Amino acid sequence: MLADDAYLVRMALAHLFRPSEAVTVVGQCKDARSVGPLLDRLRADVLITDIQMPAGPDEGFRLVARLRQSHPALGVIVVSTYADVAYALKLFEDGSDGRAYLLKDRIRDRAQLIDAVRAVADGGSTIDPKIVQDLVRTRALKTRSDVDDLAPHELETLALVAEGQSDATIAESRGLTEAAVEEDVDAIFARLGLGDARLSGRRVNAALLYLADPVP
Asked: What pTM was computed for the model?
């Protein structure tokens, strides 16, 4: 389902999905107030929305927070013009399961959106790599912390985890076996005290929070 106050944005998204057999747009609305009732009627698996809605500049976030309670199984993709780390972290503050944050001007093709829809529908998460790059860059400028003890390839792996990439995807992009990546991620999480690296949604949230957290 699509929720955006801009008619042209809704039409553009609907057009992108129209040739796809994997994704069907079942409904559209232009304000946050209409989302809940329409979801109940259409039983959509995924909602694509924006931060800014008619009720306020951050109404999209308030909507997503309400949906976490009223529709816990719903996947939500926020498609935003704001390449701001704070906005992305706000989306994930109640957990990253079934959540994605994409930047409008960096969406290159239909496949990218379809992959995000599939990820959040399955309870996974996705975040634009630019946001993660900004987090890593900010972290690198802070006082020394445990992250400084990571080898370059480990820091690269942590950033890919924060983007929501699976061990299999990371293995393919880095030319490694999936078992080697799993071992690498387990070791990184253990060293940084981030908990169980096998819980996909939680591991993204943990990585994001760690990269964003001020160094004492």
From this structure: 0.73
Q: Which DSSP state fits 31?
A: S
Angstrom distance (rounded) from CA 48 to CA 104: 12
The CATH code of the domain that includes 152 is 3.40.50.2300
- Does 142 lie in the same domain as 123? no
Across the chain, how many H-helices and E-strands are there?
10, 6
Q: What is the pLDDT of residue 95?
A: 81
203 versus 128: which is more confidently predicted?
128
Cβ proximity of 114 and 23 under 8 Å: yes
Structural contact between residues 174 and 181, judged by C-beta atoms closer than 8 angstroms: yes
Pairing of strands 75-80, 2-3: unpaired
Sequence-distant (≥ 6) Cβ neighbours of residue 90 within 8 angstroms: 58, 61
Measured CA to CA in angstroms, residue 212 lies from 102, 147, 156, 187 at distances of 18, 12, 16, 20
